UniProtKB/TrEMBL annotation:
Pfam families: F-box_5. InterPro entries: COI1_F-box, F-box-like_dom_sf, Leu-rich_rpt_Cys-con_subtyp, LRR_dom_sf. Gene3D superfamilies: Ribonuclease Inhibitor (3.80.10.10). One of its GO terms (biological process) is SCF-dependent proteasomal ubiquitin-dependent protein catabolic process. One of its GO terms (cellular component) is SCF ubiquitin ligase complex. SMART domains: LRR_CC. This is COI1 F-box domain-containing protein. Residues 12-49 form the COI1 F-box domain.
Length: 674
C-alpha cells in the first residue's frame, strides 16, 4: 500500500487517461488539460470530438490541424458573423474547403452559416459521410429556383439522417421538391426540424407537410411550424394529422406549433381564456393520432386555436402511447375535470415526466391537484396563460410532487404573480433547480402601501416589516433563474421583498424585458437595479434580453426618452456583478429594424471587469466596440445579427467587415491575465 502513495496521475496508462479525458466536456477545462505537458496535449486533442471554431475568416490559413478526432464541427460562429465563409468566385475557395477536410477528416455532424447555396457546393463534397447537418441563415433568400439551397447537400451526403432548419430562412416551398428529387436521402432522414423561428406569419401548409412526411417515411423525430387557422388556405386539420401519422408511424417525437405562437408569448386570449376561433381538430382525430403513433415519447401540439372537450381523447395517450414521457398542449380545453370520483383526462398519463399546459381556459386548482395525483413522476411543469389557477392550488400541486419536481415555469397566469408563485413553490423550495416567474409586483406594492399606513409615525421602517413578512428562505439547489419583466418595472423587489435573495448555487440568470417604451415618457427611476443581484455569490452567466423592448432609436418626440436612455436604465449597475459570460440583446426600433448598441450601453458594459465572453445580438459602431477593450479579462466578443432580416451589406450594418477585423486585432494584441 505504501508504494501506491508514490504513483502519480501522470503514470496512469495512456488508455486510462484517454478514457478519463473523453469524459471531460467543458471547453475551458480541456484547454487547461492540454497545457500541462506534451503527452496530455496529444491525448486531449485525440479525445476531443466536438469543436466550435472561432476566429476570423481571413485567417483560414491558420486553421488548426491537431483536431483529427473531431466529429461534431460548428462553423457558424466565425467572424465576421454571417459573412460568406468562402468566395466561390475565387480559385482559392476550393483549396480552403479541402483544407477543412484535411484538418477535420472525421466530421459527421456539421453546423454552418449558409448565407448562399454556394457554401454547401464547396463543403458538402468534403464530408460525404455527414449524418447530421444544421443550416443557419438570418439573411434574406436569394432569387434562386425552389429547393436549390438543399441540392448540394442531398447530392453528396447520401448518409444524411438528421437535418435542422429551425434557424435557416427559406421558403416553405423549398424543401418538398428537394426531398422528392433525392428519394433515397429523404428515406434515410430520421430527424427533421423545420420549426420556423424567424417569422411570425409563415408556416408549412398541409399539402407541404404531407409531401415532406411521405418522402421521409422513416422519421423518428419531426418538428414543424404549421397553420391551424381554418380560415387560411392549407390549414392543418383532421385529415392532415391522420395522414401524418400514417406516413410516419415510427415517430417518437412530434412537435407541431402554429405560426402565431411565436408572435407574442405574452398575448392573452379573451376575458374567459379562449381564442377567437376553434381549430378543426376532432376528438376522433386526436385518438386516431395517438393510436397511429404507438412509439411516441414526446408530443407537442401548440394549436393557438381552441380544441375543446379533449379529456376523453387524452386518456387514449396512456393506453396507446406507453412510452410517452413529455407532453405540451396549447389551447386545449377540458383536459382534466379535476377531483372527480376517479382520475380522468390527462391525469391518467401516469408515466409523464414533463408537462406543459398553455392557455387552457378551464384549468382549475382541482385539475392541478388531480394531475399531481395521477402523474407522480413529473420533474418538469410549465403553465402559461391559465387564468383560473391560484396560489392555493399550485401550492398543493407542488406539495404532492415535492419528491420529483425540480423544474417549474409559471408565466402569464392572472392569479400567480411573483409573490404568489414563490409562496406556492414553498414545498419544493429546497429541491427546485430551475425556475421561471413573471416579475409582477402588484401584491408587493399593495403590501408596501398597507405597511406605510400601519407604520404611520412609528420608528419602524416599512421595509423592515416587509422583510419580516417575506422572511428569507434558502433555495438550496436553484442554479438557473428566468425572469420576465414589463418595460419600466424595477428588479429590486426580487431580492428585497419576495424572498428570493438566498440562492447559494445560482450561477445563471436570464431576464427578458417586454413592452413599448414609446408609451412611457421617461424611466420612472434612474436605474433598473441590476446591482441587486450581487446577493447571488456564484452568479457568472447572464442573458439580458431587451429585444422585446420597443422604442425610438434615433430622435424621440419631445418629452420622451430614446433607446439609449432606456439602455442606460437597464444596464446601470451591471459592472457590480462578477459575470464571466453575457449575452445581450439591445432594444429595438421596429419601424426601421434597428437593433444597435448605444453609447451609454457600451460604457456600462465596459465596466464588467470579469467578463470573458460577450455576445451582442445586434450591431454596433466600431468606436463603441473599442470601449470593450477596457475589460481586462475579455477574450471572446462577437456581434450576431441573429434576427430576420439581418443586414444585407456593409452599408446597412454599423460594424463592417474591416471594422470587425480591426477590433479583433486590438482584442488579440492585449495580454490576458490568465
Amino acid at each position: 500500500m505504501a508504494a501506491l502513495n508514490h504513483v502519480h496521475f501522470h503514470d496512469l496508462p495512456d488508455l486510462i487517461l484517454f478514457k478519463i479525458f473523453s469524459f471531460v466536456t467543458d471547453t475551458r477545462t480541456r484547454n487547461s488539460i492540454s497545457l500541462v505537458c506534451l503527452k496530455w496535449h496529444l491525448l486531449e486533442r485525440s479525445t476531443r470530438t466536438s469543436l466550435a471554431l472561432r476566429g476570423n475568416i481571413r485567417d483560414l490559413f491558420l486553421l488548426p490541424t491537431c483536431f483529427q478526432a473531431v466529429t461534431n464541427l460548428d462553423l457558424s460562429l466565425l467572424s465576421p458573423w454571417g459573412h460568406p465563409l468562402l468566395d466561390y468566385s475565387s480559385t482559392d475557395s476550393i483549396l480552403f474547403a479541402q483544407l477543412f477536410r484535411q484538418a477535420f477528416p472525421s466530421v459527421v455532424s456539421l453546423t454552418i452559416y449558409a448565407r448562399n447555396p454556394l457554401i454547401l457546393y464547396l463543403f458538402a463534397p468534403q464530408w460525404p459521410n455527414l449524418r447530421h447537418v444544421k443550416l443557419i441563415r438570418w439573411h434574406q433568400r436569394l432569387s434562386i429556383p425552389l429547393g436549390f439551397d438543399f441540392l448540394p447537400l442531398f447530392e453528396h451526403c447520401l448518409s444524411l439522417s438528421s437535418l435542422d432548419l429551425s434557424h435557416f430562412y427559406c421558403w416553405t416551398e423549398d424543401l418538398p421538391p428537394a426531398l422528392k428529387t433525392y428519394p433515397k436521402v429523404a428515406a434515410s432522414i430520421s430527424y427533421l426540424n423545420i420549426l420556423i423561428t424567424y417569422s411570425y406569419t409563415e408556416g408549412y401548409k398541409s399539402h407541404e407537410l404531407l409531401a415532406i412526411t411521405s418522402a421521409c417515411p422513416n422519421l423518428r423525430q419531426f418538428l414543424a411550424t404549421c397553420l391551424f387557422d381554418h380560415r387560411l388556405v392549407g390549414f392543418v386539420g383532421d385529415e392532415t394529422l391522420l395522414s401524418l401519422a400514417s406516413n410516419c408511424p415510427r415517430l417518437s417525437l412530434l412537435h407541431l406549433v402554429d405560426a402565431t405562437s411565436l408572435s407574442n408569448a405574452r398575448a392573452n386570449p379573451d376575458g374567459e381564456g379562449y381564442a377567437t376561433e376553434d381549430a378543426r381538430i376532432s376528438h376522433a382525430t386526436l385518438a386516431g393520432l395517438c393510436a397511429g403513433l404507438p412509439l411516441l415519447e414526446e408530443l407537442i401540439l401548440d394549436v393557438c386555436h381552441n380544441v375543446r372537450g379533449t379529456g376523453s381523447a387524452l386518456e387514449v395517450l396512456h393506453s396507446k402511447c406507453p412510452r410517452l414521457k413529455s407532453l405540451k398542449l396549447g389551447h386545449f380545453h377540458e383536459i382534466c375535470r379535476g377531483l372527480d370520483s376517479q382520475l380522468n383526462g390527462i391525469a391518467l398519463c401516469s408515466r409523464l415526466e414533463s408537462l406543459s399546459i398553455k392557455n387552457s381556459a378551464d384549468l382549475t386548482d382541482s385539475s392541478l391537484i388531480a394531475i399531481s395525483l395521477g402523474c407522480p413522476r413529473l420533474t418538469k411543469f410549465v403553465v402559461h396563460g391559465c387564468k383560473r389557477i391560484t396560489e392555493i392550488g399550485f401550492r398543493k400541486f407542488s406539495s404532492i410532487l415535492k419528491r420529483t419536481l425540480i423544474d417549474v415555469k409559471i408565466s402569464c397566469c392572472e392569479h400567480l404573480n411573483a409573490v404568489c408563485s414563490l409562496r406556492a413553490l414553498e414545498p419544493i423550495r429546497g429541491q427546485i433547480q430551475q425556475l421561471h416567474i413573471d416579475c409582477v409586483w402588484k401584491s408587493v406594492q399593495r403590501l408596501e402601501g398597507d405597511l406605510n399606513q400601519i407604520a404611520g409615525n412609528k420608528s419602524i421602517q416599512p421595509e423592515k416589516r416587509l422583510d419580516n413578512k417575506f422572511s428569507s428562505r434558502t433555495w438550496a439547489k436553484l442554479h438557473y433563474l428566468s425572469l420576465w419583466i414589463s418595460a419600466g418595472e424595477l428588479l429590486s423587489p426580487l431580492t428585497s421583498s419576495v424572498g428570493l435573495n438566498d440562492c447559494p448555487v445560482l450561477d445563471e440568470i436570464q431576464i427578458r424585458f417586454e413592452g413599448d417604451c414609446r408609451q412611457q415618457s421617461w424611466p420612472s427611476m434612474h436605474a433598473f437595479e441590476l446591482s441587486s443581484l450581487e446577493c447571488y455569490p456564484r452568479l457568472s452567466k447572464m442573458k439580458l434580453d431587451c429585444g422585446g423592448t420597443i422604442g425610438y432609436a434615433l430622435t424621440a418626440p419631445y418629452g420622451y426618452a430614446d433607446l439609449s436612455l432606456w439602455e442606460r436604465f437597464y444596464l446601470k449597475g451591471i459592472g457590480n456583478l462578477n459575470l464571466t459570460e453575457l449575452d445581450y440583446w439591445p432594444p429595438q426600433d421596429t419601424e426601421i429594424n434597428h437593433r444597435a448598441l448605444s453609447l451609454p450601453a457600451a460604457g456600462l458594459l465596459a465596466q464588467c471587469g470579469t467578463l470573458r465572453k460577450l455576445f451582442i445580438h445586434g450591431t454596433a459602431n466600431e468606436h463603441l466596440m473599442m470601449f470593450l477593450l477596457e475589460i481586462p479579462t475579455l477574450r471572446d466578443v462577437q456581434l450576431r445579427e441573429d434576427y430576420y432580416p439581418a443586414s444585407e451589406n456593409d452599408f446597412i450594418s454599423e460594424m463592417r467587415v474591416r471594422s470587425c477585423c480591426r477590433f479583433e486585432d486590438a482584442l488579440n494584441r492585449r495580454k490576458i491575465p490568465d
